[in-house]
TrEMBL record:
PROSITE patterns: PDZ. It is found in: Cytoplasm, Cytoskeleton. Transmembrane segments: none annotated. It holds the Pfam family PDZ. Belongs to the syntrophin family. This is SNTG2 protein. One of its GO terms (cellular component) is cytoskeleton. The keyword Cytoplasm applies. Residues 143-160 have a biased composition (Low complexity).
Length: 517
């Protein structure tokens, strides 16, 4: 998506926001700030301009000012009136900060001091100005070319007083004095939007939260490039504008991620393809039990689920993952969706799996990935659409791995005997003696009617005998019981999907939510 629009850049230190323009292309987000540039004539620096104004009988200096040292901002030109002294110079612009008046420095002067100086400076007033690129938004300065028609402030008034310097002298309707004819080689200035920062969107990430907290920014977010360069806090005038920009940027980032996946997959064997990857926030439990989140980059590739602190950009990076888990032995689970009426939907995708998480945090779009030895990773994404993609991608990656693997065998024991337990996509469950290889029992997936475990190492599997219809209980002890239970779940879900794909789709909590909205 390509898009341009006006936004604010929020400075957390000064707590001021500045007008900027955003330009979004397929690959880059560019931040522009307004500045005054010299477009022709002698090569003067547009940084400081010294302009002589001739006070007119009607209209005075033809400008209004705002700001002052008492507001911790310079005095700036807030209005320029058509066909009057200031406009006729062609060198003054709304947003120009006044630095000197007739050689007197006014950078630290109050509003009233500058008004007094300008009103009593005589008929010829020489002012030195510099365009204030980061004019705080509370000044409510129009963004376009001079004149009231370009006011972006939507009729909202500034808390600061707007002092008009256009009412001096006689108010009879005499014609304004015509501008003096332009001098040859006199510099010509224009106000323009200039690029100040370009953020590449490939592998970029977006955050709507105040760093490390659950506090959601109001109509604002930050975009961070792969190299860590940040846009700063981008603030929008309405929730709708913020949502539109968030969606547009997320779409472009997702498209570029897809391109990166395709490039990576050209170098990988068919059994080792990247199914999905992207940024998430992982919740970390602090020692003082405060909830902190850190950016993590997740990838589903071949037989594994990877967790990175930074995206893998070369083939060598894949071995540098913080964690790598076998896809057959993980369980994906959606925890939270934010519905339109601001209620929470606590969603357990797979019934019967124990829920250990305290869900008091304020982030919507949360999911966990449960791994071996009873451990879990708890993640959050920015958009409901991202949650739906992760849900579908985990499902697909796990099903593909089950079909590729065909079977998984685990060492186990019961009453001192060393046994092997196999989960097989075609045959179901088989238990055999690890030494003699003699099969002790075998059941199909459809014969499993229930299970219970002690949460540590022991599990009871309840099978229905096809002939007698009686329930037979088989007890086994595993070193990593969680991994085995997840593997059983993966194989059964993959089996159901191969027989009835529509049923699996109908169980998707995130996609139901997306369609209903």
């Amino acid at each position: 998506q390509t898009k341009t629009g006006i936004a604010l850049l929020y400075d957390e230190v000064s707590e001021n926001a500045y007008d900027i323009r955003l330009k979004l292309t397929k690959e880059v987000l560019t931040i522009q700030k307004q500045d005054v540039v010299c477009v022709s004539g002698s090569d003067h620096s547009a940084n400081h301009r010294t302009v002589t104004l001739h006070r007119q009988p009607v209209g005075g200096l033809g400008l209004s000012i705002k700001g002052g040292a008492e507001h911790k901002v310079p005095v700036v030109i807030s209005k320029i009136f058509k066909n009057q002294a200031a406009e006729q110079t062609g060198m003054l612009f709304i947003g120009d900060a006044i630095i000197q008046v007739n050689g007197i420095n006014v950078e630290s002067a109050t509003h009233e001091e500058v008004v007094h100086l300008l009103r009593n400076a005589g008929d010829e007033v020489t002012i030195t100005v510099q365009y204030l690129r980061e004019a705080p938004s509370f000044l409510k300065l129009p963004l376009g070319s001079p004149g009231p028609s370009s006011d972006h402030s939507s009729g909202t008034s500034s808390p600061l007083f707007d002092s008009g310097l256009h009412l001096n002298g006689n108010s009879t309707n005499t014609a304004p004095s015509s501008p003096s004819s332009p001098i040859a080689n006199e510099p010509k200035y224009e106000k323009r939007w200039l690029d100040t920062l370009s953020v590449p969107l490939s592998m970029a990430r977006i955050s709507r939260y105040k760093t490390g907290t659950d506090k959601l920014r109001s109509n604002a977010f930050e975009v961070l490039a792969l190299d860590g360069v940040s846009t700063g806090i981008l603030q929008f005038y309405t929730a709708q504008e913020s949502a539109d920009w968030l969606r547009a940027m997320s779409t472009n980032i997702s498209d570029l991620t897809l391109q990166n996946m395709k490039m990576a997959n050209k170098c990988c064997s068919p059994s080792d393809q990247v199914i999905h990857m992207g940024w998430v926030n992982e919740r970390l439990e602090g020692t003082d039990s405060s909830q902190l989140y850190k950016f993590k980059f997740l990838a589903l590739k071949g037989s594994s689920f990877y967790i990175f602190s930074a995206p893998p950009v070369s083939t060598l990076d894949w071995v540098r993952a913080e964690k790598i888990y076998n896809l057959c032995e993980v369980l994906f689970k959606i925890h939270k969706l934010w519905l339109a009426d601001d209620c929470w939907l606590q969603a357990n995708l797979y019934l019967g799996i124990h829920q250990d998480f305290d869900l008091e945090d304020q982030r919507p779009y949360c999911f966990s990935v449960m791994v071996g030895h009873g451990k879990s990773h708890y993640f959050n994404v920015e958009l409901g659409s991202e949650l739906a993609v992760w849900e579908k991608s985990f499902q697909r990656a796990i099903f593909l791995e089950v079909q590729r693997t065909g079977s998984k065998t685990y060492m186990c024991s019961w009453q001192g005997d060393a046994l092997c337990f196999t989960v097989d996509f075609a045959l179901g469950f088989t238990c055999f003696d690890s030494k003699t290889k003699n099969v002790l029992w075998r059941f199909k997936f459809s014969q499993l009617k229930g299970s219970s475990d002690d949460g540590k190492t022991r599990v009871k599997l309840l099978f229905q005998n096809i002939d007698t219809k009686q329930i037979e209980t088989k007890e086994l002890e595993f070193q990593d019981l969680t991994a085995v239970l997840h593997c059983i779940h993966s194989f059964i879900a993959a089996k159901v999907a191969s027989v009835d794909p529509v049923f699996i789709d109908s169980q998707s909590i995130a996609r139901k939510y997306m369609y209903s909205n």
